Amino acid sequence: MSVIREAAAKLNLSLDLNGVFPDGYHEIHTVMQSVGVYDTVTLVPAEGISLRSSLDGPLKEHPGSAAEIPCDASNTAYKAALRFAEYTGVNVGVGIEIVKRIPSGAGLAGGSADAAAVISGLDEMYRTGLSERQLCEIGARVGADVPFCIVGGTMLAQNIGDLLTPLPPLSGYSVLIVKPDAHVSTKEAYAAFDACDHIRHPATSWLLHAYLRGDLKTFFAGCANVFEQTVEVAGRAEIKSVMRSFGSELALMTGSGSAIFGLFRSANDRDACRAELTRWSVFSGELWQSGLRRG
Fold first, then answer.
1. How buried is 127 (Cβ within 10 angstroms: 0-12 exposed, 13-18 middle, 19+ buried)?
2. Of the listed 39, 114, 145, 269, which one is catalytic?
């Protein structure tokens, strides 16, 4: 029996970092959103664990948008299969096939989304009947973003990103994502943040109050990504300016970069903006209220 999952990318609508825990992880405070730019992950019965991947969509047209994707035990999807086996005691034998549409090195959690798909898919394949909480426990052993990618929707993420609080769904927006040529190393981005003497932090509590009141204008006006102060991405300012000129209500870098997204009320405005930004790799989608869908 094969199992298919469509695994959504994530956006950070606002992202702040605070202290550092003793284990070296940073304390995160972010509003995360699933978006319908997705990888397709297919699981098939096999001997042992194997993995292969291919590119589709804009990644196929612009392969440079995707950093080299390992197909061995260093891949998060492969790690997810190992952590699932450890957690459940199942002797996992699976061939993992990933069709990549989410660019890597972009802050879109493509690797975490694939890992989430593997955990959810193996639960179905082996009929282990795990709860969402148990799936997220496995996911947290793979990476901090994996629990969000399992649950998805609109969430406040805290701690190292694994403490999730549901927020009222954000709806009615079309999304444009632009991937500049640069690939950002998450490790190097955090090191640059740590080396910075002064960071302007978003007023997170105030932002959340605005969001919960339904005051999206105030919420979007205050959203920020602290990595934009320490991570240089060529073309970012131009991309954000073009997005705003076409009516984007929020234009921001996601994660540690390098992708920039814009939220548009009008799909026509989004598509017109896309036509102005074709010198880079451009992706469009709608907001999802889940992290995974059955293929």
1. exposed
2. 145
Q: For 252-285, what is each residue's pLDDT tens digit?
A: 999 999 999 999 999 999 999 999 999 999 999 9
Q: Which of 85, 103, 104 is nearest to 94 (CA)?
A: 85
**Catalytic residue, candidates 10, 79, 100, 240:** 10
pTM across the whole model: 0.94
Q: Work out the pLDDT band at 61, boundaries 50, 70, 90.
A: low
Match 């740590």 to its residue by tokens.
194
Average pLDDT over residues 88-111: 95
The Cα 249–Cα 175 span in angstroms is 11
Residue whose pair of structure tokens reads 């997204």 in the numeric block: 261
Q: CATH number of the domain at 3-168, out of 3.30.230.10, 3.20.20.70, 3.60.20.10, 3.40.630.30?
A: 3.30.230.10
Closest CA to 34 of 254, 211, 266: 254
Active site annotation includes 100: no
Per-residue burial over 129-157, b if 16 or more Cβ lie within 10 Å, else e, is ebeeeebbbbbbbbbbbbbbbbbbbbbbb
| Distance separating alpha carbons of residues 155 and 12, to the nearest angstrom | 10
Written out in words, the top-level CATH class of the domain with range 174-288 is alpha beta
On whether the CB atoms of residues 139 and 119 are closer than 8 A, the answer is yes
10 has catalytic annotation: yes
For residue 192, pLDDT beyond 80: yes
- Contact assessment for residue 7 and residue 39, using Cβ atoms and an 8 Å cutoff: yes
* pLDDT of 59 above 80: no
Place of tokens 């972010």: 30
